[in-house]
Amino acid sequence: MAATASGSLRTVEAVSTAILRMLWFDEDPGAAVCASSVFHDYRNGICYCDKRCEQRLGCATVESGDLEAQDRIAMAIRRRSLNGDLIAATDDRDPDFNYAVGY
Predict the structure, then answer these.
(1) Which residue has the higher pLDDT, 74 or 23?
(2) In 27-42, which positions are buried (b, 16+ CB within 10 angstroms) versus exposed (e)?
């Protein structure tokens, strides 16, 4: 397996989280990319949740004006070993950002 991430702190978080969810929980790429996320912002030392999990965990939400923290674009792909089919998932935002960085 190979993985790479480049971009904002949230893009790196999104790619690493999707990969870990696929490995640890055996999730399909779509579930791993779309899962709720929590991240530690190294700029201010605060942990943030996205809107899907803030109520359950009671953590801070990302400020809407913080574009670097809002920039969360991920792509994941898995090859099924039985028949060799590829399963891919991309973030549902701007398609210009959904391209493979490397495999």
Answers:
(1) 23
(2) bebeebbebebebebe
